[in-house]
Design a protein that fits this description.
Elements (H helix, E strand, L loop, with lengths): L2 E5 L2 E3 L5 E8 L8 E6 L6 E6 L5 E3 L7 E6 L4 E6 L8 E7 L10 E5 L2
Parallel strand pairs: 2-10
Antiparallel strand pairs: 1-3, 3-8, 4-5, 4-9, 5-6, 7-8, 9-10
């Protein structure tokens, strides 16, 4: 069965760090460009980071220089290292293929607050 499971979220103070994980199953993971998305309350879901099958990466301007996306194809897993977190990074974080072709998972909540 095709699905993704996000984990690693939590409550962190401004300036802190978190590392999110996305475990995918049911697909040949290494063939897909993957993306991290987030949705804050009252806002649309947005793409924050992308990593291609060739390990090229792209970031939204709002997270550039603070977030790092990586992948381990042997483990069918993608990661998002988030540093220097800001309150405006508070959102539910999701993963999917870059084309959003998989069923959306439950996401993982990230809350940045003092």
């Amino acid at each position: 069965q095709v699905h993704v499971v996000e984990s690693g979220g939590g409550l962190v103070q401004p300036g802190g760090s978190l590392r999110l994980s996305c475990a995918a199953s049911g697909i040949i993971f290494g063939l897909y460009a993957m993306g991290w998305y987030r949705q804050a309350p009252g806002k649309q879901r947005e793409l924050v980071a992308r990593i291609t099958s060739g390990y090229s990466t792209n970031y939204a301007d709002s997270v550039k220089g603070r977030f790092t996306v990586s992948r381990d194809n042997a483990k069918n897993t993608m990661y998002l290292q988030m540093d220097s977190l800001k309150p405006e990074d508070t959102a539910v974080y999701y993963c999917n293929t870059f084309q959003s072709t998989l069923p959306w998972g439950q996401g993982t909540q990230v809350t940045v607050s003092s």
